[in-house]
Design a protein that fits this description.
The protein has 9 helices and 3 strands, in the order αααααααββαβα. It is mainly alpha-helical. The protein has 2 domains: 202 residues, Up-down Bundle (Alpha-lytic protease prodomain-like); 110 residues, Alpha-Beta Plaits, CATH 3.30.70. It is elongated, with a radius of gyration of 27 Å.
């Protein structure tokens, strides 16, 4: 099954599970009247909205390329993640407001023992779901699924913190602990929402993914072909599950069109073997220059102008540069 379709099915499941968790939290709040539980419940409202938006974005992202969207619709995932992150920041601010208000207008708590068991069950559901979604998101290279996993991860920490706070409250009898826990949760939620917004904006702006670039360069170095004399001006852009690679590949200047094309095919196949078939390429072939000879590893070359001296290891610094390499 294509990753885009699989991601959409996963997101539908996430939406349904988010609604179940929300209902459990509502029941817990009705039982306890705890402000920290209310804060946790409000966060779940955001999660429901966010997962609905995530489902729609994945539906859009799964559409094939067309005349108006030659690079596909994958960036819809980034827009969805930005919306999710913004909602998380907003709910964090609301939680902080409610916490401060509770210091001024305290609310009596009750039936906390039963509430704890519900919170523990919710926390376990959130943790297991977060781990599963994180694995699927990384495997399928889906920011929307990863963001949904982060929502459940945040939900786990907040719910677990609420449970711990209620336990401390029962031990100490100090009811303001509930408000302190809510205040802490608000700050944590704002910080995690900011990280999601930051990552999504990086995708929208085509910010270089240094980790992904390192993976691509490492794979090329491991199976480097002597026909690839030089590699420079490398660019890697993500569009949802689609990865687009631009680069300049230097081949022997005397290669005909078919020979140069064969060298490019070997290069693209190497990348696809590692990262899957959802990779597009725009590769410009350059002919080698006399200054390329000292770094050229071709053993048999009748056109060589200088002896081989040193093999240059390709890394982030030299392949991102827009110029052919040569020994200093």
């Amino acid at each position: 099954m294509p990753y885009s379709k699989q991601n959409l099915k996963v997101q539908y499941f996430v939406t349904a599970l988010t609604i179940v968790v929300f209902v459990l939290k509502v029941v817990t709040y009705i039982l306890t009247h705890s402000l920290s539980v209310l804060s946790d419940t409000l966060e779940s409202v955001v999660n429901i909205v966010a997962t609905l938006v995530g489902s729609y974005s994945l539906f859009i992202a799964s559409k094939p390329k067309d005349k108006d969207h030659p690079y596909g619709h994958g960036k819809a995932e980034f827009v969805s993640a930005a919306f999710q992150g913004s909602l998380i920041v907003g709910i964090g601010c609301l939680i902080i407001y409610k916490a401060i208000d509770s210091f001024i207008h305290p609310v009596s708590l009750h039936n906390l023992n039963n509430g704890i068991w519900l919170l523990v069950m919710i926390a376990i559901i959130n943790l297991v779901t977060a781990l599963i979604l994180n694995g699927i998101g990384k495997k399928n290279k889906s920011l929307a699924i990863i963001s949904s996993g982060k929502l459940f991860k945040i939900d786990f920490f907040t719910t677990a913190s609420v449970a711990i706070g209620i336990i401390l409250l029962l031990i100490t009898g100090y009811e303001k602990i509930d408000a302190f826990i809510a205040l802490f949760l608000g700050l944590y939620v704002i910080y995690d929402g900011y990280k999601i917004v930051r990552q999504s904006l990086a995708g929208i702006m085509d910010e270089a993914d240094m980790v992904l670039l390192e993976e691509v360069i490492t794979e090329i170095n491991l199976s480097r072909n002597a026909k690839w004399i030089d590699l420079h001006n490398l660019r890697v852009i993500k569009y949802g599950v689609l990865m687009h690679i631009d680069c300049h590949l230097t081949v022997p200047w005397y290669y005909n069109v078919n020979e140069a094309h064969e060298a490019v095919d070997d290069f693209t196949q190497l990348i696809k073997n590692k990262f899957g078939t959802s990779v597009e390429f725009y590769i410009h072939t350059d002919g080698c220059m006399p200054f390329s000879c000292p770094i050229c590893t071709l053993e048999i070359c009748e056109k060589r102008k200088a002896p081989f001296e040193k093999k240059l290891n390709w890394n982030l610094e030299n392949v991102l540069s827009d110029r052919k390499h040569q020994l200093a």
